[in-house]
User: Fold this.
Amino acid sequence: MTRDPRAFFALDTGAATASAALVARLAGRWRLLGALALPAAVGGEVACRTLLERLVGADPGMAAAVGVDPAALDRIPTVAVRSGPPRQVAVVAGSERALAPLARSAVRAGWSVRQGSAATLDPLAMSRLLLDPGVDAILAGAGDPPGADERGALPELAALVAAVAERRPDLTIVLAGALTDELARFGDVASRPGEVLLGAAATASADGHGLGELLSELALPPDDSRRAAIVGVTTLAEMTARRVEYVEIGFDAGVRAVADPTLGRDEPAVQSAVVTAAALAPPEPDDAVLDRVLGWSTLNLDRHRLRDRLRELRINPWAGAAGDGAALRLAAGRAALGRLMDATEGMHGSAAPDLVVAGGGAWAVAPGPVVTLALADVLRRPGATQYAYDHARLLGPLGSIADPDERRSVLADLADDLLVPLGSVITPAGLRHGRSVGRLVLHAESGDTELDLVPGGLELVDLAPGQTAVADFRFRDSVRLGGKGRQFEVEVAGGLGGLLVDLRDVPLKLPERHDRRREQLEAWQASLWAGLDQ
Amino acid sequence: MSDRAVAANGLGLDLVTVRPLLEEAIDVRFALAPGDRVIVEDGASVTVGAPLAERYRDTVLTEASLPEGTEGRPGARWTPPEPGRRGPGRPVGRGQGRRSGGELLFPWRHGWRVASGEHGEPLDSPVTGIVREVIPGVHIIVRAAGRAVRGIVALGGAARGRLQLAAGPSGELRPGGLDVGLADTILVVGARVDAETLTRARAMGVRGIVVAGLSSKERRDFLASEARQRAALHRLPPFAVLVLDGAVRRSIAGPVVGLLEALEGREVAIVTDPPALVFDEPDVEPAAPPIDLVRVRSGADAGREGRWIASLGPRRFEHGVLLEAAQVRFAEGPAVVPIGDLERFSLGPVRAE
Assistant:
């Protein structure tokens, strides 16, 4: 990006998907000319070449104008990020109380976590845990100062971890809190191939902010697409002066980032987490995963068949995406998003963000309005929020541009192409049951639309992408919509799903019986899914 | 038509995921637990049946102190002294460790914590190869001679036997189809198999099963049966199940069937990590699959095979889903299929980009 090119590829290669986008300078600004996603095994190079060939086939004049030629593919610069399978960390501590915040820090930092404490594992079982060949790193921690419940166990724990470190010198070892005092047991740490690092204590309240950053650095390589996307979202929040929340459900992990505009501060305010347990289809779907997917499923599948389908989705993430495969992905996506929100509980205030950006393969096959509904089903916060989708997977590659000014400039140019506007969702909370709780008048350029607000349902109002309107709400009783009150005027933006007025409960209440729940979910989904009967 | 020719003709076959039929010189990992006794060393050549290690059940934690002047290190073996021996170096042991010795875990107070087990069981190599890495308590890695066909998962323990095709590629083996005459064989059983057939096969002395799909329920039932078997005092020989494709029923891929037919009657091994069928038969030369042969990997049509016609670009499929599509000629005629559903085959490994 320093040679002032006229075009470049943005390439995001994940475990399941290779996504290429061709960005070129047209009329003095960067524009997205096209994007293509293919199975990762096919490779990014094939995706880039195919994209270019399609551009040349569709508009040779434009291809010539931006100076791209399929015969000289390797001369076009590429901004590339990638994501690989998660690394595994074994988290150990002297007590269960001390273990919980350590494990939480690791879970949010993108590690696949196995854990145990001296209170529940004897030294033999803990040795088995740490010596498992799947383990890439060990996080051994304690409070600082250590609590009474863990103090007695720390010397033996340190001796055990040091012995494992000697046996497996390739392992990265992180000592946190008071266990850093035991560094001498690890001998000459400079001579071993795996690092021995010292981190801050993780506490129940602070989770060891410094420790979290250290663990993120270790878990995700510098060119990791998730890390880069978080930077991209932070830049987006800064550019738009809006609170932006990014939720990505990918093959190997879920990502959540909440970025606030800097508003004159030196450092952007962003909280983020990469959670492997929030992968679309975990490698071994346990009963908890299964129950959650079953809870969101509109398909009539028993537990065994659903488990088979999830396994197949894991083995062949691109296969069977049409038909009920799309519905399965949406159910698995909602379930994964729920796991992501659980793992990042407390990361945000209760206020709804201004903009939610969805990313990842989970949302790739369903129509935009249905994706909006899926997100609104899980992200239930009272307020008005605009939803968008990173359709070309550009946030990662663009977030990886090292120079902040250049990154901001490219993102600003691409603002209209970067995200597909899914629509706006308005979710009032605290509605009383009854026939009608009030009225909505939508003042749009095309005219006014009036709606009776019936609690428990969804109201869909057409509002095309690019259009804005003012929604004037008059409730009979006081409700929560950002603040508490009876009258609200909310500026809304259109999208593929228009304006969705979500009058369902917050949090969402669904029938207990599977068949009734399925019918309810199906009814909501069918109202937004054009082509469902095809 | 060569790969390059297909791509150059604009037919877009390179948009389809390639599945390599064979891999050479794979590294096979044999997991160890603390307390297991390693027999081989780094760099050693091993032949089929050569002992790699002794695995112990019922491993317990014991304590021991080493003779004076002896320096221990984690992972080293500790052997209890002969009964009746006296002196300052006498180890202090208790429980099982007193009889069988064990593995030093970590120094603690004035001695060592030791993992000590009883009921040792030999871990024999199912393949010929060279030991690449030995880490006591962790694993032994052997680079296997010969070639391997990868599966998606292998259950049970590594096993070896004579390969026999017991059902057609889209068939299914039922418990009634098994008899003791199949002892010491690895059976190719077609599209699916149930847990009852698997447990019966193990009881009959069959060494392994190769199958295209194994459902989650059958997998769970088999693993429960395997765990019970593992807990029994007198165990049966290792038994392995290699799943080639996934969790739902589908035919074994045509090119894989061709290879298995060529191997019928020969000695093969199933290894679990990575899940693969390993054979060392240099004279078996599988035919290269047709370049335009494609197979549906998953979904309702899983296992169907056809010939590639051309890529079509984005198309709408059922439920209005927009996907990259291709036209494929199946036996019933041409059809439009999402490209993501398809795979094609190469004889050897695919070169990384």
Summary: The radius of gyration of chain A is 25 Å.
